[in-house]
Design brief:
Layout: H1 15-24, E1 31-36, E2 41-46, E3 52-55, E4 61-64, E5 68-69, E6 76-80, E7 83-84, E8 90-91, H2 97-104, E9 110-114, E10 135-137, E11 142-144
Parallel strand pairs: 6-9, 9-10
Antiparallel strand pairs: 1-2, 2-5, 3-4, 7-8, 10-11
C-alpha cells in the first residue's frame, strides 16, 4: 500500500515509486487509501492504471470508483511521517489514521516509513496503540528497526 503524497505538505513524492513498481514488478498489486475524516479510518483500494484520482478538500489524492482491498490482504505499507526515532516509532500528522489502519492489519505486515530526515534519538510521546515501523527510507540510507 502506497500513500499518495500531499503536495502542500511537502511529502516525498511517491508517484515515481509507484510508476517504477508498475514496470519492475508488474504482478504486484498497488493499493492506495482513502481517508474517512468522519470516523478517522482509511479504506484501501486497488490502484490500477485506469484508476482515477481526485484531490479531496485536505489536498489528498484519493481513488474514485476503485476495487476495495481488505486490510488483512496488505503485505507492505508505505507510511508518511514527520519524524521517526531510532526504535522505529513515528510521528505523523496526529490524526491516528495509520494507527487505526495498522490495528486492522496482520501482525506480519511490513511497515516502511518514508522521510526526508534521519531518525532522531527518541520520541517521547508514544502511545500503547502505536506500532513501530520495520524500516524507514531516507535520502541517506535505509534504516532497519527491531
Amino acid at each position: 500500500m502506497f500513500f499518495c503524497s500531499i503536495a502542500s505538505a511537502n511529502e516525498p513524492d511517491t508517484s515515481l515509486f509507484i510508476a517504477w513498481m508498475r514496470v519492475a514488478h508488474p504482478s504486484v498489486n498497488i493499493v492506495i487509501s482513502k481517508s474517512d475524516f468522519s470516523n478517522g479510518t482509511m479504506q484501501n483500494f486497488l490502484y490500477e492504471r485506469d484508476t482515477k484520482l481526485e484531490v479531496n478538500k485536505w489536498g489528498i489524492p484519493e481513488p474514485v470508483h476503485a476495487v476495495p482491498v481488505e486490510e488483512k490482504k496488505l503485505d507492505v505499507i508505505l507510511l508518511p511521517l514527520l519524524a521517526v526515532d531510532k526504535a522505529g516509532n513515528r510521528v505523523g500528522y496526529g490524526k491516528g489514521f495509520y494507527d487505526r489502519l495498522l490495528q486492522q492489519c496482520r501482525k506480519d505486515v511490513y511497515t516502511v516509513g518514508l522521510s526526508y530526515f534521519e531518525p532522531v534519538e527518541h520520541i517521547e510521546d508514544i502511545g500503547e496503540w502505536d506500532i513501530p515501523l520495520k524500516c524507514c527510507i531516507t535520502p541517506e540510507r535505509i534504516h532497519y528497526f527491531q
